[in-house]
Amino acid sequence: MELSCRCNSLHEPLSTGRQQNGWEGALLSESKWHKLYTAYVAAPQARLFHLLSDMPHYGDWLPASNEFAFTTDVDPYPVQLGSRYHDGKPDQPGKDWWGTVTGFRPPGSIDFHHTITVRQLKATIEVDIHYSFEEENGGTHVSRWLVLDIAMPIVFRPLRRLITSSFDKENLRTMAAVKEYAEAHPGT
């Protein structure tokens, strides 16, 4: 399986006196991190768009992990621009989040935004994901661009790598799973 990634970590620490998750007066570290994941998938563009936009059926191709189990409460459904969804582990308080479809251009691209709170680190993570699907040599070139805006108390800043590492693993897993499934089931 061939997956490629390019990473650029933008360290833009900003210290503010804002309150964050109950840390009154705590100095915050705010930073951005992004990574581009790409894969060539021997399946039609429309098939890949369908798999990644049909969120209630992710379980057909994406096994549960420590970070993600399933997606529920998609409204309106079928998915469209503005659809809201409950993601992560919706049945476990504190391990779930709500998101919105912020871009929807079948079969070429889809965008998602959600906010995740990591209570143990008093962190808030704004997550933006952009998928693009480009026909190439009878298959599809899939790009997934992940952008994280991380705000956390400066005292926890050294643990930021735990957050980015967790996101990186989950994104690699998702790209590999959709590639494997789409190539095994290109027309179903």
Please provide a written account of the structure.
The chain has two helices and eight strands, in the order ββαββββββα. Residues 5-21 have low confidence and may be disordered. The protein is globular and about 55 Å long. The chain has one domain: START domain (Alpha-D-Glucose-1,6-Bisphosphate, Chain A, domain 4), CATH 3.30.530.20. It has an eight-stranded antiparallel beta sheet. 18% of the residues lie in helices and 43% in strands. The longest helix is centred in the C-terminal third of the chain and has 25 residues, at 160-184. It has helices at 45-53, 160-184; strands at residues 3-10, 28-41, 72-75, 84-88, 96-105, 109-118, 123-136, 139-153.
State the end-to-end CA separation: 21 Å
Describe the biggest sheet? 8 strands, antiparallel
| Count of DSSP strands | 8
User: What is the H-and-E element order?
Assistant: EEHEEEEEEH
Stated plainly, the CATH topology is called: Alpha-D-Glucose-1,6-Bisphosphate, Chain A, domain 4
Mean pLDDT: 85
* CATH architecture descriptor text: 2-Layer Sandwich
Radius of gyration: 17 Å
The number of distinct helices, counting runs of at least 4 residues, comes to 2
What is the CATH C level class, in words? Alpha Beta
Global morphology? globular
Low-pLDDT sequence parts:
5-21
Strand content: 35-45%
Which secondary-structure class do the elements indicate? Answer: alpha+beta
Give the strand line-up of the largest sheet.
Answer: 1-2-8-7-6-5-4-3
Assigned CATH superfamily: START domain
Domain unit count: 1
Considering DSSP H and I runs of 4 or more, what fraction of the residues is helical? 10-25%
